């Protein structure tokens, strides 16, 4: 640990090891309409071939290649959704995209490449080859193949794939129940008037919406005053949840009441992460329930939740790949002061280069609403303009 700071990878490794040991085991059957953002609990094997039968990739004519040297009469018309008859030898069939290929035909010629003769026959103007414009049965998927594996996070595409296989319901991990606590005497909920010294609680809205996107059930435990007994009572009243997620009060200051209760009644590890924003992070346990205490500054909450707590929750659901995708992009700025902590700067892409929000203070959540992603400056590094750096799109972490 450089200078007593825990590298981000190491913190993540410890969190994921814990998540692996405490995976959510219960499953439930959920309709496709309710499954977006959730995690598949069992492999989904295809119960049928896709496509289920060979079909036409074009609007045109189905025929036997061997017959195509001379004009052919049209013996049937096959639309998508119809069951064709076998092709009469020496004829062709009018066929449309997605319609089943009649037995006996071995190619489809697109309508642009034929001439319709006055007597109704069709002349084929181009050389034909077997299988052209035919989507073979099972081309996409063969029956029995695992198409979506357990641990897959479902999004619109996966739901479309499941639908293509006829699945109305999927077996998913049950939703983890996460209690969200905001700590701080200064906090007031939006809608109320601000008193002297007070600010609005932004972390609660940030985290509750984010957790729901991640397929969690939220138990919003409101604002916790900076007070030992109140903190004790609030924790005791949370009931059975899968994770307690708090913000604020984690710097080892006098107002660290959550830490104190965990120390007395549970377990507490205080980490100083080599990360900026977001150095202090609590990982502990209360009445058998894991607790993650994020720093209170909203941009710190965003970064630590996005990089650590999000990954932890997804892993508890059985998702293997929990790291957000990042891309290498040239810096549109210079970074002259190497820091001990890895910086996650709120940034945008402008003409293919990373540009920074001017105010990177950890209290400024607006920086993240302006940003399209987090630009990563490694520990002990300086950068010149044009140097390549990692950029993590916020869309990757927020979903
Ligand atoms: P703390 O970690 O409690 O010392 O808080 C660090 C900073 O974050 C302070 O300026 C707090 O006022 C601010 N803060 C803590 N919790 C929240 C919250 N839920 N919403 C907005 N700001 C907060
Ligand atoms: Mg506080």
Structure description:
By secondary structure, this protein is of the alpha/beta class. The protein folds into 3 domains: about 10-25 and about 175-315, 3-Layer(aba) Sandwich (Molybdenum Cofactor Biosythetic Enzyme, Chain A); about 55-135, Molybdopterin biosynthesis moea protein, domain 3 (Molybdopterin biosynthesis moeA protein, domain 3), CATH 2.170.190.11; about 325-399, MoeA, C-terminal, domain IV (Beta-clip), CATH 2.40.340.10. Helix content is about 20%, strand content about 30%. The chain is built from 8 helices and 26 strands. The protein has helices spanning about 10-20, 155-165, 205-215, 230-235, 255-265, 300-315, 365-370, 395-399; strands at about 25-30, 45, 55, 60-65, 75-80, 90-95, 105-110, 115, 120-125, 135, 145-150, 170-175, 175-185, 185-190, 200, 215-225, 245, 265-270, 275, 280-285, 290-295, 325-330, 340-350, 355, 375, 390-395. A hairpin with a 2-residue loop joins strand 20 (about 280-285) and strand 21. Helix 1 (about 10-20) runs parallel beside helix 6. The longest helix has 19 residues, at about 300-315. It is elongated, with a radius of gyration of 30 Å. It starts with 7 loop residues before the first helix and ends with a helix. The mean pLDDT is about 95. Magnesium ion binds near residues 183, 248, 255 and 296.
């Amino acid at each position: 640990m450089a200078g007593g700071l825990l590298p981000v990878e190491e913190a993540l490794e410890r969190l994921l090891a814990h998540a692996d040991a405490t995976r959510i085991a219960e499953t439930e059957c959920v309709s496709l309409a309710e499954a977006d953002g959730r995690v598949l609990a069992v492999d989904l094997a295809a119960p049928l071939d896709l496509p289920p039968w060979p079909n036409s990739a074009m609007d045109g004519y189905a025929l036997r290649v061997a017959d195509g040297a001379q004009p052919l009469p049209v013996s049937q018309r096959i639309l998508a959704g119809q069951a064709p008859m076998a092709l009469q030898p020496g004829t062709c069939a009018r066929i449309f995209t997605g319609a089943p290929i009649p037995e006996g035909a071995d190619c489809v010629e697109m309508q642009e490449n034929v001439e319709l003769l006055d007597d109704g026959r069709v002349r084929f103007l181009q050389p034909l080859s077997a299988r052209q414009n035919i989507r073979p049965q099972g081309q996409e998927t063969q029956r029995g193949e695992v198409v979506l594996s357990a641990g897959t996070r479902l999004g619109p595409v996966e739901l479309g794939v499941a639908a293509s296989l006829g699945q109305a319901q999927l077996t998913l991990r049950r939703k983890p129940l996460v209690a969200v606590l905001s700590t701080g005497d200064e906090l007031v909920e939006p809608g109320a008037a601000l008193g002297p010294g007070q600010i609005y609680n932004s972390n609660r809205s940030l985290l509750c919406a984010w957790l729901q996107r991640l397929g969690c059930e939220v138990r919003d435990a409101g604002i916790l005053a900076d007070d030992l007994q109140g903190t004790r009572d609030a924790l005791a009243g949370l009931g059975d949840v899968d994770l307690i997620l708090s913000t604020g009060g984690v710097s080892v200051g006098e107002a660290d009441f959550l830490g104190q209760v965990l120390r007395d009644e549970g377990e507490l590890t205080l980490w100083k992460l080599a990360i900026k924003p977001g150095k202090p992070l609590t990982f502990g346990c209360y009445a058998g329930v894991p607790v993650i205490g994020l720093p209170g500054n909203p941009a710190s909450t965003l970064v630590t939740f996005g990089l650590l707590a999000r990954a932890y929750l997804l892993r508890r659901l059985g998702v293997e790949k929990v790291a957000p995708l990042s891309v290498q992009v040239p810096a549109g700025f210079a970074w002259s002061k190497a820091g001990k902590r890895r910086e996650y700067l709120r940034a945008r892409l402008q003409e293919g280069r990373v540009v920074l929000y001017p105010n990177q203070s950890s209290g400024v959540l607006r920086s993240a609403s302006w940003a399209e992603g987090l630009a990563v400056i490694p520990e002990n590094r300086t950068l010149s303009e044009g140097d390549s750096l990692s950029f993590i799109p916020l869309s990757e972490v927020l979903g």
